[in-house]
Amino acid sequence: MESALFVCVCNAIRESQVRDAARAGSMTPCQMYQALGRQPKCGQCAVLARAIIEEERAAA
Description:
There is one protein chain. With 60 residues, this protein is mainly α. Helix content is 52%, strand content 8%. It contains 3 helices and 2 strands. The longest helix has 14 residues.
């Protein structure tokens, strides 16, 4: 089941998508945006996205 938590409201990026991008090799929010084919907008999600990416990378 896909996580309902939106990490990035501007781009409608869900937590599960951030985790998938991290598992696929993204190590930063910028790399995550690129992997998902999106562009950063307001930047409010960067701290949360980075934490999720680091959590996934640590679990790998």
